[in-house]
Structure formats: C-alpha cells, structure tokens
Amino acid sequence: MSPRVLRGFRDYPPPDAGARSEILRRMRAAARRAGYLELETPSVESFELYQKKSGEGIAQQAWVFTDKGGRTVALAPETTPSLARVFVERAKSEPMPVKWFTISKLWRYEEPQAGRTREFQQFNLDILGVPGIAAEADLLATAALVMDEVGAKGLYAFRLNDRELSEGLGRLYGAEDSGRFFRAVDGFRKLGPDQFETELRAAGLPAERATELQEYFGKVGLGIPPSGLDRALTELAAKGLDAKATAGADRLRQLLHLLDRAGLADRVVYDPTVVRGIAYYTSTVFEAFSRTGDGRSIFGGGRYDHLIELFEGPPTPAVGLAIGDQTLELLLRSADRWPEGEPALDTYVVVVDPAHHPEALAIVEELRRAGVSADCDLLARSMSRQLKEAARRRSRRALIVGLKETRPGAVVERDLATGAQREVSRDAVARSA
User: Fold this and answer.
1) 123 vs 106, 126, 155, 394, 413, CA distance in Å?
2) Which residues are CB-contacts of 384 (< 8 A; sequence separation ≥ 6)?
3) DSSP state for residue 395 in the 8-state scheme
C-alpha cells in the first residue's frame, strides 16, 4: 500500500503552502508594526512544563514520549508555557512592558474535525508587565490589525467579558461550584437548553434561578454592542452584584472606551457567556467570532496574572491571545479571501530560441540580485509556451530576448496585463522593473 498522510495531519502542496506563507508574512508584519518582538521556542519540551500550567489533563491531548535519555517529553501542544519559561529566565533583565509574538507549530492528539487538526500552526500575541486595561486594548487593537491585514476585515468581531464579573454573576444566581458553573457557561452555545439547565443545576443553582439565567443569556444573543453596555451592566448591578463583580464590570467599561477611541467600536460586543474554559485566566477574557452567520469562534485569549508565578517567576501581570491557522483559513475561504499562493512573479524572461538561454539566465540572476522576482524557462519550450507559462505564474511582465526586429543591445518588455510592448536597453532591465 502506498504511504498516506496520517489522520489529523495535512500536506500543503503549492499553491496552498505559498498562501499560508503569505498569511504568516502579513501577520508578522502587522505584529512588528505594533511593536511586538518575535519569540521562537522549541517544538519539544519537558512534559512537566505543560503539567505545571494545565495539570494532569494535558496528558490526554499531548503527544508524550520518553526520549533516549529517559526523560518524559512532549511535542508542544501550546506556546504559553514556553513563553513563561523564557520570561522567567530573563525577568531580572527584561525591560517592561514585554510585547512578544510567536508563530509555532503545535501538536494535540484530539479528534480531527473542521478547523481542528492534530498538527497546526498558531500565532500568539502576549503582553507582560502591564497591570491596567491598556494592555488588553493594545492587544485587541493589534489583533484587529492582524485580522484586517490577512483579509478578514468585516468578517469578525470580538466578544468581551470579565471572569470576576462572571464569578459574581454565579454567586448572584446561587452557584456553589464556580468551576462547574464556568464550564456550564462556557458550553452555553454548544449545549441544548435542557442540558445547559442541568449543568447549571449541577453547579448549585436553584431551578428557578437556572431558568432565569438561561433566559438572560438567550436575550443577549451574540452580544451587546458598546452603545448598550452601560445599560446592561447597570441592570446587572441592580440585581445585587458584589464589589469584585462590579470591579469586573468597570474594567469592561474602561476597555470598551479605549477600543472605541481606537476606532474599533464596530467590532466589539459584551457577551456574558464568554468565560474561556482555561482556569488560569484571571479577569478579562475575549473571543473573536465569525460574522458570516454561524457565530463560530475563531480565536480567544485573556488576562493571566498569576501564570508567571506558577513557573517560579516574579508576580507579573500578563494578557495574551492565540490565533489558530485552521479556523482562520476556514473563515477566509468562506469569504473567498484566501490568497492565491505565493506572490505573483514580477518578470518572466522569454527566449526566441534555446541559443539565447544563457543570456536569459544572466538577466534572471541580475534581476534577482536587484530584489526583483524573476524566472525563465528550463525546458527549451517554444516562445508561445513560455508566454503561457508566464501568464500561469501571474507575471507582471515578460522580457523577450532574441526577436529579430529588436535593435542591438535591447530586449522587448511586454506588459502581460495589457499586451503593450516597448524596447528596453539590456543594461537597464533591472532599473526598469
């Protein structure tokens, strides 16, 4: 039997690999424009690193094995623990704030489905050392820039919430098990009404309070826009929110104000059902969701102020988010905004007959060294076939070498979009690009 790619893995032949490369190029450029520095971490780490953050449950998804030295190691299932390790090593000398981005290949042994494979790439943004809500504002503004640059403008919005506000909501409605309550709320959009109410009851909510909370979440729909935030939070406060929950509501107000000033009010909503399932989030949490009709979550993140201490570092406030390649690709393809592949070739050098091939190679090398993408035929094809290849490669122009009517020391430049031609001095081909 011929070898096949393993279940949960994918090949990316051209043009898909080129399209993915172009997406990552745009993401890198946007992050750097926002002042983030790139961090690269290993693909294999001690399994203990992930257990510190996620506990024993991580073993169900991590690709764990024993190396030749007898150590228990894992293929990286996420980047944040590695980021924390690096930060702790550098904490004494690292100037604050730290703004890092990572692009990592990760592995999780989970059931493959649309938007989820066992091997994937993830783009992370993290800010460390900023206790105030300004960090969330910068992070989300940068995420919006990244999404717009990859072609997703108008396709997404951010759902915002605060876990301390949600904890207060749980206390208000009678939750006795906050972990169970969070898991129930996190599954609101996935569970049926009966199952959701059962989960709320299991968290300690009385029947009538569980029904009341479910009705409230249902009225919220896909979120409350900034124009309705004050009213929504005031109504919640009137029900009897305690001081910690009120502080969470105030953080949301501040964050929405900053995002409004940044021109992002059209793409943020308050959503009390967003709590994020990961326990280390401490206050602000958020998700990006698709506006294409299914409300699918594209990525998420939040504030994790105690994680660095978990890795024996100094108390360090932190906030971050992670964008997975699979969900982003689904979003862009659904809107017909996925790149064609590698950027189009600028110049294709065409020869009238194979005798001119050495000159074509010389021109190609000259153009490449001048920073111009260029190529030429390697199969001794006819001139018409070469021009077809130039069109297939989406070349901007063709330089034709060896036409009899061309004056000595010149080549013909053809604009492949309009068909317009002109003679160009052989010595000026790089300058004319």
Assistant:
1) 11, 10, 18, 29, 41
2) none
3) -
Strand partners, 411: 424
What is the pairing mode between strands 119-128 and 156-162? unpaired
Residue 226, pLDDT above cutoff 80: yes
Q: How confident is the model at residue 193 (pLDDT cuts 50, 70, 90)?
A: confident
For residue 221, is pLDDT > 90? no
Against a cut of 0.85, is the pTM above it?
Answer: yes
The count of structural domains within the chain is: 2
Q: Residue 90 is inside which H or E element, if any?
A: helix 80-90
How many C-alpha atoms does 389 have within 13 Å on its Cβ side? 18
Mean pLDDT, range 137-149, rounded to an integer:
98
- Verify that 358 and 326 share a domain, yes or no: no
Indicate the DSSP class of residue 343: P
Return d(Cα 269, Cα 286) in angstroms, integer: 10
Query: Where do runs of H (alpha helix) occur along 262-369?
Result: 307-310, 325-334, 357-369
Q: Residue 90 pLDDT > 70, yes or no?
A: yes
Between CA 6 and CA 26 the distance in angstroms is: 29
Encode 57-94: b = buried (16+ Cβ within 10 Å), e = exposed.
ebeebbbbeeeeeeeebbbbbbbbbbbbbbbbeebeeb
Each residue's pLDDT tens digit, 333-365: 999 999 988 889 999 999 999 999 999 999 999
User: Are 318 and 100 in contact, with CB atoms under 8 Å apart?
Assistant: no
Q: Examine the domain organization and report whether 272 and 403 are in the same domain.
A: no
Q: 229 with 182, same domain?
A: yes
Could you tell me if 249 and 398 lie in one domain?
no
Amino acid letter, residue 354 = P
Write down the pLDDT at residue 295. Answer: 62
The answer to whether residues 242 and 168 touch, using CB atoms and an 8 Å cutoff, is: yes
Look at residue 2 and tell me if it is in a domain.
Answer: no
Average pLDDT of span 90-118:
94
> Which residue in 152, 141, 146 sits closest to 28, CA to CA?
146
Co-location of 317 and 386 in the same domain: no
Instruction: List all residues 6 or more positions away from 355 whose beta carbon is below 8 Å from its beta carbon.
Output: 402
Rounded Cα–Cα distance for residues 135 and 137 (Å): 5
Last residue of a domain, one of 285, 300, 334: 334
How many angstroms separate the CA atoms of 44 and 269, rounded? Answer: 38
To the nearest whole number, what is the mean pLDDT of the chain? 93
